[in-house]
Design a protein that fits this description.
Length: 411
C-alpha cells in the first residue's frame, strides 16, 4: 500500500519525550522538572483527600453506575464549575448569559473554542502570548485558524513587557481573538498585576477584540480560588455590555484530575437590547456545541465529572478541597524559596529572585538550552529546553541537589 509513503515520521512531543528519556535513564538519582503535574514531598503523585472522599461518596451511592452522560455533560459539574470560576455573585450567571458544556479537560475546551471560532468567525486571527503553552498553537492551527503572537515576557528584566503587549492589542486587526492565561501563566509563571489587567482589558475593549480566557490553574496558583479568578471576573465585568467572552476551564491541576479529563467550555454572552431574544441565541449556541461534542466524543467522560461535581457541591468536601489547594500551592511556594536560597548560598552567578516572584506550577528559570542540556546529561535533572522548570518536581530531598546542579552548569 502506497499511502504510507506519505506518512511522515514526526519528532516526539517535547514534553512527553522528556518523560520517555527520564524513564530510560539508569542513573539512581534523577529529577523530573518537565511535565506540569503536582508531586508531594516524596516526589509521588498526590490524590487529594477531597477527591478520595468524593470517590467514596460516589461508590456508596445506591444509584452508582457507568451510564452515558448527556451530550453536554453533567449538569452538576457545569453549574458548579461556572459558579466557582465566575463567583457566587456573578452578574453573568444571575442574568442567565452563560452557555456551558462539559469538555475533555482544558485541552478539549480549547478545541471546542477553536472549532466554534473557525466555524462562525474563521477569518479572525488568534493572538497567543509569546511564549505560551506549546499546545495552544497546535490546537488553533489544527482547526485552520491563523495565529499570531503578542509580546509578553521581557527576557532581560524577567518581567512583563506591558508596553509591547498593549501595542500588539492596538495594532491587531479589529475584532481579533486574544487568548489570555487567567492565572499562573504557562510557561513563565508571570501574571499581570491588577492594574496591568485593567490596562490590558481596556485596550482590548477599545479594539473590539474577543477575549478567550484559558483557566487551567484556578486555586492552584495562590491557594485561593477568588484571588486566582481576578482576571476572569474583571474581564466579565468590563465586557458585560461589549462582547462575548470565551472561557476554557480545566480541573486537571486544582483537583488533581490530570488523567480523568474533567473540564468545561463556557461562552458568556454580552447583555443584549430588549429586542433581542437571548434565550434563542443561547439555545442555538448550545445546539452547535452539542453538534461538536456528538461528532467527536458522543458524550463527555463521566467518572471525573462526578468526582469534581461531588467536590464542588458537597460543602464538607469543598472545604477540604480548599485546604488541599493550600497544601499544594504552599508546598510549591516553599520549594521556590528553598531553590532560590540554595542558589544564593552557593553564590551562583545572577539574580534568582524571579523564582520566588513567579507563581503557579512553573518557573521560567532563564537557563539557556545548552545549560538545560548539561543538566540532563551531567546531572539527570530534566526540564524543557526553554528553561521552564516544573517546581512541583522539587522536594526537600532533591532541591539542594538541583541547586548544586544548576550552580555547576551556570558557573
Ligand atoms: N492551558 C494551559 C495554559 C495549560 O498549562 C494546560 C495544561 N498543561 C492546559 C490548558 C490544559 O490541560 P488539560 O487538558 O490537562 O486540562
Amino acid at each position: 500500500c502506497t499511502i504510507f509513503n506519505n506518512v511522515e515520521q514526526l519528532p516526539p512531543d517535547a514534553l512527553f519525550g522528556i518523560k520517555q528519556r527520564l524513564s530510560q535513564d539508569p542513573r539512581p538519582v534523577k529529577v523530573d522538572l518537565g511535565i506540569g503535574a503536582y508531586r508531594d514531598d516524596s516526589g509521588k503523585p498526590w490524590v487529594l483527600p477531597s477527591v478520595r472522599e468524593a470517590e467514596e461518596v460516589i461508590r456508596q451511592d445506591p444509584g452508582y453506575n457507568h451510564e452515558y452522560l448527556g451530550i453536554s455533560g453533567l449538569t452538576a459539574l457545569i453549574q458548579g464549575a461556572a459558579k466557582v470560576l465566575f463567583g457566587e455573585d456573578s452578574a453573568a450567571l444571575a442574568e442567565g448569559r452563560v452557555v456551558s458544556t462539559q469538555s475533555l479537560s482544558g485541552t478539549g475546551a480549547l478545541h471546542v473554542a477553536a472549532r466554534f471560532i473557525s466555524k462562525f468567525c474563521g477569518d479572525k486571527v488568534v493572538y497567543l502570548s509569546d511564549p505560551t503553552w506549546a499546545n495552544h498553537n497546535a490546537i488553533f492551527e489544527t482547526m485552520g485558524l491563523k495565529t499570531a503572537t503578542y509580546p509578553y515576557w521581557d527576557a532581560a528584566s524577567k518581567s512583563l513587557n506591558l508596553e509591547g503587549y498593549l501595542e500588539a492589542i492596538k495594532t491587531a486587526p479589529k475584532g481579533s481573538v486574544f487568548v489570555l492565561h487567567a492565572c499562573a501563566h504557562n510557561p513563565t509563571g508571570l501574571d499581570p498585576d491588577q492594574s496591568q489587567w485593567t490596562s490590558i482589558l481596556d485596550a482590548i475593549i477599545e479594539r473590539e477584540h474577543i477575549v478567550l480566557f484559558d483557566s487551567a490553574y484556578q486555586g492552584f496558583a495562590s491557594g485561593d480560588l477568588d484571588r486566582d479568578a481576578f482576571a476572569v471576573r474583571l474581564g466579565l465585568q468590563k465586557l458585560a455590555d461589549v462582547s462575548p467572552v470565551i472561557v476554557c476551564q480545566s480541573f486537571a491541576k486544582n483537583v488533581g484530575m490530570y488523567g480523568e479529563r474533567a473540564g468545561c467550555f463556557h461562552l458568556v454572552l454580552p447583555r443584549q437590547d430588549a429586542s433581542v431574544d437571548t434565550s434563542a441565541i443561547k439555545s442555538a449556541v448550545l445546539s452547535q456545541l452539542n453538534k461538536i461534542t456528538r461528532s467527536e466524543l458522543s458524550n463527555p467522560p463521566a467518572y471525573g465529572a462526578k468526582i469534581v461535581a461531588t467536590v464542588l457541591n458537597t460543602p464538607r468536601l469543598t472545604e477540604q478541597w480548599h485546604k488541599d489547594m493550600v497544601t499544594m500551592s504552599s508546598r510549591i511556594i516553599k520549594m521556590r524559596h528553598a531553590l532560590r536560597d540554595h542558589l544564593a548560598k552557593l553564590n551562583t552567578p545572577g539574580n534568582w529572585d524571579h523564582i520566588v516572584n513567579q507563581t503557579g506550577m512553573f518557573s521560567y528559570t532563564g537557563l539557556r538550552p545548552e545549560m538545560v542540556k548539561r543538566l540532563e546529561e551531567e546531572h539527570a535533572v530534566y526540564l524543557v529546553s526553554s528553561g521552564r522548570a516544573s517546581i512541583a518536581g522539587l522536594n526537600s530531598g532533591n532541591v539542594e541537589y538541583v541547586a548544586k546542579a544548576i550552580n555547576e552548569v551556570v558557573t
